[in-house]
Amino acid sequence: MNFELTEEQLAVQQAAREFAQTELLPGVIERDETQTFPLEQVKKMGELGFLGMMVDPKYNGGGMDTISYVLAMEEISKIDASASVCMSVNNSLVCWGIEKYGTEEQKEKYLKPLATGEKIGAFCLSEPEAGSDATSQQTTAEDRGDHYLLNGTKNWITNGNTASVYLVVAQTDREKGHKGINCLIVEKGMEGFVVGKKENKLGIRGSDTHSLMFTDVKVPKENRIGDDGFGFKFAMSTLNGGRIGIASQALGIASGAYELALAYSKERKAFGKPISQHQAIQFKLADMATEIEAARLLCFKAAHLKDQKKDFGKAGAMAKLFASKVAMDTTIEAVQIHGGYGYVKEYHVERLMRDAKITQIYEGTSEIQKIVISRELLK
Predict the structure, then answer these.
(1) Which residue in 59, 145, 177, 250 has a CA-CA distance of 20 to 30 Å to 80?
(2) How many CA atoms lie within 13 A of 328 on its CB side?
(3) Phi, psi angle pair for 115, to nearest 5°
């Protein structure tokens, strides 16, 4: 067991930290207020290789390990969770899913531009009546021989309007239940595909979250991922990796809030001395630092198992469950340490607190993570 990061991993961490500080920090408060997607910054993330970190270099990716990805996600998320969720979806769900299960033709056509950020991807599973219960797909993909006819609605889709490549999960044969579900690659601009309104959210307000509507969209058979009926298994397998991304995002939100609280506690004075010298604040900082380190180690373990091609489902669920709770708890305490200033936007921590909540909901709620974990324990 080696807890030392390699030189390459440290270099990735440093590059992500510098990018976050120089490119994402300026304007992050304004983007949150105006719900502006960080388009220029995301383009630069693609140019720097942050949108296809784990993709094989032969498909224009970085060929990096998952621990490097966790490190980069943490640094980006410290500053702008709206940018990091775009990075997580593109890496963990879309690129990984196509590289792992797609055909060579699909990889050449879609994976290569996705890995460089030339195109952005979206993962479309949730529906108005199918969030945690992913088996209840109402979106249908009717088999018409050489193509599918896609009809339905998807909700809360990250990168909903910015994406140009969409992985859409739909029901083909309802009698077969979850074995009658397929995943189709849908392109923006296909006739009958409409992007709905942007959601007005509590947090990650810069993130491009939309509903999608499909009306008789003709999707070529060659755009199906895997064999007929593989869609549900594809979605669950892909979400396992996605949980590492969101756990890393939660870790970054927590560590960003902690760093701000620590710095502020050394500057703010009360009763004649910095508040960091008061035991009440010291104990808060100690709890925050300990929980963040525990979350980081859970993320690293899940990432390591994934890199070793071992079963990482339980580890990923544990990392997301715990890191998302740490993000919520830490950001609340960071606001408390800042006192009245914590309630003011210019100090950043109130935004981090709002951003933290979603990490307990998307990529499977905390309750779903407990189901995943308990099933593994009771095998």
Answers:
(1) 59
(2) 11
(3) -65, -25
User: Domains along the chain?
Assistant: 7-120 (1.10.540.10), 122-232 (2.40.110.10), 236-377 (1.20.140.10)
What confidence tens digit (pLDDT) does each residue in 2-16 have?
A: 899 999 999 999 999
Q: Which of 79, 87, 81, 23 is nearest to 55 (CA)?
A: 87
The Cα 107–Cα 63 span in angstroms is 15
Amino acid letter, residue 63 = G
Measured in whole angstroms, the distance separating CA 153 from the mean position of its chain's CA atoms is: 21
Question: Is the pTM for the entire model greater than 0.90?
Answer: yes
Please give the positions annotated as active site: 363
Q: Which residues of 277-287 are buried (b: 16+ CB within 10 A; e: fewer)?
A: eeeebeebbee
Segment 91-115, tens digit of pLDDT = 999 999 999 999 999 999 999 999 9
Closest CA to 320 of 264, 249, 253: 249
